[in-house]
Amino acid sequence: MKTLGHWIDGKAVESASGNTGPVYNPAIGERARQVAFASVEEVDSAVGSARRAYAEWSQSSLAKRTAFLFKYRELLDAHRDEIAALITAEHGKVHSDALGEVARGMEILELACGIPTLLKGELSTQVSTRVDVSSLRQPLGVVAGITPFNFPAMVPMWMFPLAIACGNTFVLKPSEKDPSAPYRLAELAAEAGLPEGVLNVVNGDRTAVDRLLTHPDVAAVSFVGSTPIAKYIQSEAVAHGKRVQALGGAKNHMLVLPDADLDFAADNAVSAAYGSAGERCMAVSVVVAVGDAGDELVAKIADRAHKLRIGPGDDPSSEMGPLITREHRDKVASYVGGAREQGADVVVDGTGYTVDGHPECADGFYLGVSLLDNVSPDMDAYRDEIFGPVLCVVRAESYDEAIELINGSRWGNGTAVFTRDGGAARRFQLDVEAGMVGINVPIPVPVGYHSFGGWKDSLFGDLHIYGNDGVAFYTRGKVVTTRWPDPAESGGVNLGFPTSS
Questions:
Q1: Which 8-state DSSP code applies to residue 292?
Q2: H/E element holding 418?
């Protein structure tokens, strides 16, 4: 069985640790390959490679960096279908969704192509007699990214293009569940001319993660994943003197007011809740129906849910694929039965789903979509991040009750409101406690030139990811004060406090 190793110093490296993990094709439930788990020594080798490359890469011209980035962008564009196929084979999402993931990742690469503008400093002349002050930003050194299974290509591309554009070198630890797409990104970067050691990939488990968090030569860590792990990443990395941006979990609410177009709201609720089998940190997992909108809205969502086509991601007719693992599928399914026992109405039950017309998928990790109505905040299905195709509907009598419910959540990643009332929408965007807000947009993921990040337990660290926050995260500021005295003048000794005059 093929073993995927590491990418260090611009070439494939077989692991010597002897530790591996399985990589499944979730559509058929079979192990497709295995991935090597790096030892501490192998992580050190990757960091050492990045540290050696930093000396030259950090001093390379912006012209050289952008020349690589433009070439890399064209190469990725030519290979986007191949990368999407790798995502589908190991994650399970349908091919069109995987193509969309690649496209969104390339948005950040395109942003990085504009790094000469993004890194422009500031200059103030004559702040005092013959004194000028300038501000500039410089790279940090070796930085690391730890990325999740649900977007194996997009999330790494949220990180390393901007990091290396700023002059850093990068060590990526992707998810061990679907490592082939990020590995291929590194291969293509080398093909595009990226110098050896600027981008390294180490596959692995907690051993690799912990070494990156404690390694003295790693200056910063970017992470996307669950809230418990994000908290751990932040505390460990900060304890070892590193800058951290750690994006955690979510429980995204979609508020539907009585004046909303309910057909439009239902279409968007279904798309946002069940796309990619609900394995998105920005998926809508709770619909808050206000007033008399609830009954009609639930009926419309249920009608659409029953018609969804679920099957292998490489079948063009499939709208939703399997979940990532059998264990995760079973855990998600348990919330449906648990909600029924706790008093919710199971309007659509997706447990026990089988794929028609694909006998090879009998052992795949499939779960049908589920819709739970009359869910209350004390139920497990509401309190936990399910991360699967389960949509909860909570009823509220008023806008004020709904906003109190949403703001009472421990998470604040994304949220949305559906309404025809501009005043209500404006009030919502100011009232709601979340980092990303949609007005009649169910998944308000910002475009690449804005920044992505939540509030509360959805983000640990001060800066969001990509956009201007990404550039700020991967650089540090320096202020230079300059004076060229007139040789004909002597200032003399002055022990007083400096002033601008």
A1: G
A2: strand 414-418
Q: Does residue 166 carry a catalytic annotation?
A: no
For residue 298, give the nearest of 342, 348, 341, 261 by alpha carbon. Answer: 348
**How many angstroms separate the CA atoms of 284 and 391, rounded?**
7
CA 52 to each of CA 44, 146, 217: distance values in angstroms, whole numbers, following the listed order: 12, 21, 11
Q: How far apart are CA 271 and CA 170, in angstroms?
A: 35
Catalytic option among 113, 281, 361, 392: 281
CA distance 273 to 318: 16
| Per-residue confidence (pLDDT) for residue 193, from 0 to 100 | 98
Q: What is the pLDDT of residues 230-274, one digit of tens each?
A: 999 999 999 999 999 999 999 999 999 999 999 999 999 999 999
Q: Is 439 helix (H, G, I), strand (E, B) or coil?
A: strand
Give 177-225 as a DSSP string: SS-HHHHHHHHHHHHTTPPTTSEEE---SHHHHHHHHH-TTEEEEEEES
**Are 115 and 62 in contact, with CB atoms under 8 Å apart?**
yes
Tokens matching residue 137 = 């930003």
- Residue 491: the pLDDT is 67
Q: Which candidate, 283, 284, 294, places its Cα nearest to that of 260?
A: 294
Dihedral of CA atoms 195, 196, 199, 203 in degrees, nearest 10, equals: 160
Strand partners, 6: 13
Residue-wise pLDDT tens digits, 202-215:
999 999 999 999 99
Low-confidence ranges of the chain (pLDDT < 50): none
Nearest to 452 by CA among 250, 210, 165, 253: 250
Threshold 0.90, pTM exceeds: yes
